[in-house]
Amino acid sequence: MSALLKRLLATVADQPSSFCRSPSQSISGWKAIGVFFGVLLFFGIISHAAPASAQLFKNVESQVTTIFGNNIDASIIAFMFGVLRIVIWVTAVGFIFFAVYQAQRGEQWQPLMQNAFIVIAAVVIVEGMSKLFFGGTVGT
How far apart are CA 73 and CA 135, in angstroms? Predict the structure, then answer.
């Protein structure tokens, strides 16, 4: 592993640095605005981050717990929704990684990205419909 790391560092060190600028060169206005908003977005996401269980299918999970809570243990319902969250995440990320791999090989990557988009769109639609049917904040 260290030989691979040494070879990678040697390759990077031998490359001429195209992003290094002399002090007399300035960054264009659009790049500065992009960097500013990127940093602002990053800190906004970090400061308002919540676990996936609080963001994905929370309304549906609380409604299922309300409806079936007398017959099914709440920990089983939480486990089922945890598995659902993991499966959706792995599916979307897997489609994206495989699409990048296909694009690097020069093969068809558009259908894979369409599948990833369909997975993400389905999650967004389910979240929107659950908020529409069950209300904004149901349960804890």
Answer: 23
* Helix %, strand %, coil % of the chain (to 5): 75, 0, 25
Q: What is the pLDDT of residues 107-137, one digit of tens each?
A: 888 888 888 888 888 888 887 787 777 776 5
Determine phi and psi for 59, rounding to 5 degrees. -65, -45
| CB contact at 8 A, 109 and 36 | no
Residue 104 phi/psi, 5-degree rounding, is -65, -30
Phi, psi of 129 (to 5 degrees): -65, -35
Q: Which DSSP helix (H) or strand (E) runs through 80?
A: helix 74-104
Instruction: State if pTM tops 0.85.
Output: no
Task: Collapse the DSSP code of 86 into the 3-class scheme (helix H, G, I; strand E, B; otherwise coil) and give the result.
Answer: helix
Q: Which residues are CB-neighbours of 74 under 8 A, at least 6 positions away?
A: 65
- For residues 51 and 26, give the distance between their C-alpha atoms in angstroms, rounded to a whole number: 40
In terms of Cα–Cα distance, which of 138, 135, 92, 99 is closest to 116? 92
